[in-house]
Amino acid sequence: LTEACLSAIDGAGALNAFVHKTPEIAMQQAEAADARPAEERASLNGIPLGVKDLFCTKGVPSQAASRILEGFKPEYESTVTSKLWGAGAVMLGKLNMDEFAMGSSNETSVYGDAVNPWRDGDSNLTPGGSSGGSASAVAADLCLGATGTDTGGSIRQPAALTGTVGLKPTYGRCSRWGIVAFASSLDQAGPMTKDVRDAAILLRAMAGHDPLDSTSIESAVPDFEAALTGDIKGKTIGLPKEYRVDGMPAEIDALWAQGREMLQDAGAKVVDVSLPHTKYALPTYYVIAPAEASSNLARYDGVRFGRRAGLNQGDGITDMYEKTRAEGFGDEVKRRIMVGTYVLSAGFYDAYYNRARKVRTLIKRDFDEVFAGGVDAILTPTTPSAAFPLGSMADADPVQMYLNDVFTVTVNLAGLPGISVPAGQDAKGLPLGLQLIGRPFEEGDLLNLAYALE
Ligand code: GLN
Q1: Architecture of the CATH domain 1-300+341-454
Q2: Which residue among 106, 154, 388 is best mutated to probe the pocket of ligand 1, counting the most ligand atoms within 8 A of its Cβ?
Q3: By percentage, how much of the chain surpasses pLDDT 70?
Q4: Where are the domains of the chain?
């Protein structure tokens, strides 16, 4: 299996999904897996996986797709990836992504665009972002599954655009230790897989309390695969009317209606619900995420990690910081740092950051109330459109790109689990995804509902 994946990766360079290959590590892990006696084999024995470049992997380049982390080889392994290797999985290499996980198209990467294996005539399509390399690799059968991270949709949106499954767990379900931080109160790691069963198996291996991450929760990790009974009779699914946004393409609306029918046919009750603060979610997210990012990215100073700019005789420490950051960060990352610094600055803090924190609470309360009313999960489209051509948004206002996240950011603001499942196609035959949003720490239930949609 590992050899087959390694050769598939070598043959799929055009997708630019894998940015660092680790064939020696892979073969070592695969041989150890083969040699392991049956009774010592854990759930992922010999299963080859790809790892998003945002995860620190010991001795292996971990650049978060940024120039500023050029040459950075961590001395440590992230908790999530070490759990995967502990369960017997095999590391094929590191996967492309948007720089520091900021983006929705994988076009901000220092390695260049990752490409969707789905095509529209002659044009190369985006695999989505920021976990674009992970989605592309899973969709193109270069690996059996991959890790992703999701701060505002970066697992679910690329899954939707590539016809794969992506699960963003409840905040605190997986340890963030050893994952390059973007917005710490929103970031969560999760599995990207070919189907729902694989997502259940991978999540179980990735999840669990970690003393190294004080926000990881001490809650038992259930056998998510055992939850996949296919029986969803008596479950109540909410359809939030606020997600029927202006200008939503008819095919997205039709997909949503089809999802509703599938769940009803399987015995679930579908009700209309209201999440009144939804319209504030995108602006709230684009204040909070850059604010936290501006603080997290302050550590890249040319001293502690990665790359330092060339200096001239007489340059001082401030010159070193400025030159390193000026040439090390890409445009989108700089934009986020500037927005974040602005909304946190004296005089604007109350008007922007503090206001956004309050609205975030209201967004979370909307969900609390719907769940308290007996709703088990919420069904929405994952994205407002199918995959778009790479380069097509190059001259657009950055807000146009942010609009891709309109259905996904609420889940991160509220800390809830969300999953995208492939559910249909647009007029050109490109994949579309439906999103299910669940109660906190009820990923088992959520996966079972997704299983019914699959
Ligand atoms: N597209 C969103 C952003 O650019 C979400 C990214 C993510 O989830 N990491 O911030």
Answers
A1: Alpha-Beta Complex (3.90)
A2: 154
A3: 100
A4: 1-300+341-454
